[in-house]
Design goal:
Shape: elongated
Strand content: under 5%
Order of helices and strands: HHHHHHH
Number of domains: 1
Structural class: mainly alpha
Number of helices: 7
Length: about 160
């Protein structure tokens, strides 16, 4: 993967993201990544907390419409995350915190999809409490690993 990561880093898009120095380059991509991630994780956390018994006055079924916004946040996060990865692929690929982050993101998105199918699509036949707890734990792990990427990179190099 090392040579592929190097090739990705040398692509025109990656060089432009890294070196353009314009506000609509790296800073905008990072902002949009944060916006998508906060939308996804924030709304997911609200649903998870409701499934765990908080805010019982809010009907669970009424939260179903948030999934469209969450999937949009996921799409924005994935696209911008890929662009951020490409801009510094070698460093990210060699960073163990990056791999851990991706594993947690996969777990969180899987839990979210299962909550959609088993709780919302199935008409509330499953309480989703365990999935909600797994989802919250995975998002906490993903966010923590993502934040640690900057610090782990110093020790890896």
């Amino acid at each position: 993967m090392g040579s592929l990561a190097g090739q990705l880093e040398q692509s025109g898009v990656a060089v432009w993201i890294r070196e353009s120095g314009v506000l609509y380059g790296y800073p905008l991509i990072l902002f949009l990544h944060t916006l998508g991630l906060s939308t996804l994780v924030g709304l997911s956390s609200a649903i998870n907390l409701r499934l765990l018994g908080f805010a019982r006055g809010i009907p669970i079924a009424s939260l179903a419409r948030l999934f469209t916004l969450m999937w949009s946040g996921l799409a924005l996060t994935a696209i911008t995350g890929l662009l951020l990865f490409v801009a510094d692929a070698t460093r990210h690929w060699s960073n163990p915190a990056f791999s851990i982050k991706l594993i947690f993101v996969l777990g969180a998105v899987t839990a979210l999809a299962l909550i959609w199918t088993r709780v919302f699509r199935a008409g509330g036949q499953n309480s989703g409490r365990m999935l909600a707890a797994v989802s919250l734990a995975c998002w906490f792990g993903a966010l923590s690993a993502g934040r640690l990427m900057a610090y782990v990179a110093e020790f890896v190099q």
